[in-house]
Amino acid sequence: MPRKATSRRETTSPIQDSGFSTPSLDRALAVLRCLGAASGGLTLSEIAGRLSLSVNFVYRVTQSLVAHGYVVRDAEKRFSIGAQMLALCQPVVDDVPLAEAALPAMRWLSEQTGEAAHLGIISGFEGIVLERVIGKALIKFYVERGTRFPLHTSGPGKVMLAFMPEAERDEVIAGMKFERFQPWTISNRKDFLKCLEQVRQQGWAVDAGEHLEGHHCLGAPILDADGNAIASLWISGPSQRLSEERLVKLAPVVKKAGAMASTALNPAHAKA
């Protein structure tokens, strides 16, 4: 699920007035919402243009957010959601943050496969990467924290939806855009639901170049005490290393990592 560049102008919700005479805070929160909806990050001028704010104001806000870790800026001076913001939005079970509970399983998964291990959740109608452990392969292949990805083309997206309560799953699918990135990309709800049935039976899901040709991933769910997906663990790499045949062979390893993370989040349930 690599970062997807986009040239089209994306619409952003207008600045919401809280009604408590805090215009600066309302605008700062609008900046965060704007960045949260942008998969490839935004420049100062892009943020200002989408929100009809002055570049000077956006500069001051983003500098403050960067200082606190809620926003990061890359070498191309594009801003995106930072680790501190991601920490606020991640699920917490019995006072244990998801990323903290899942990291040992992620490190184990990366060691077993040699590939980068990722952790993500569903955010709105997309997925978002919360954490990653970089693999030991000579050529690294990983996705940065905060990257958003389509659910219908990704291993983690499929597996989270497959293990989600039906009503919640249908609500998410109703808002998804089944964009066709490749000729073999699933691009309609009927075929996608059939795919999810198979994913639920086998307990894992793949992206065999459905988003970006040559990029493969394999994901398994992290489940709560009721057996519902709250997140996913997955490995990601080039098709030369993660062929479709190797993905099938590694499926039990990824499932075990998902089970390890599930147990870390629900130790009392695991012992029952």
Concise synopsis of the structure shown:
The chain is an alpha+beta fold. The protein has helices spanning about 25-35, 45-50, 55-65, 85-90, 100-115, 155-160, 165-175, 190-200, 245-265, 265-270; strands at about 70-75, 80, 90-95, 95, 115-125, 125-135, 150, 205-210, 215-225, 230-240. It folds into 2 domains: about 25-80, Winged helix-like DNA-binding domain superfamily/Winged helix DNA-binding domain (Arc Repressor Mutant, subunit A); about 90-270, GAF domain (Beta-Lactamase, 2-Layer Sandwich).
Describe the structure.
There is one protein chain. The protein has 272 residues and is of the alpha+beta class. Helix content is 43%, strand content 19%. The strands form three sheets. A six-stranded antiparallel β-sheet has the order 7-6-5-10-9-8, sandwiched between helices. The chain is globular. Residues 1-12 have low confidence and may be disordered.
Tell me the major beta sheet: 6 strands, antiparallel
Please tell me the overall pLDDT: 86
What level of helicity do the residues show?
40-55%
Radius of gyration: 19 Å
N→C terminal distance? 36 Å
- Estimate the strand proportion: 15-25%
CATH top level of the largest domain is: Alpha Beta
Number of helices: 10
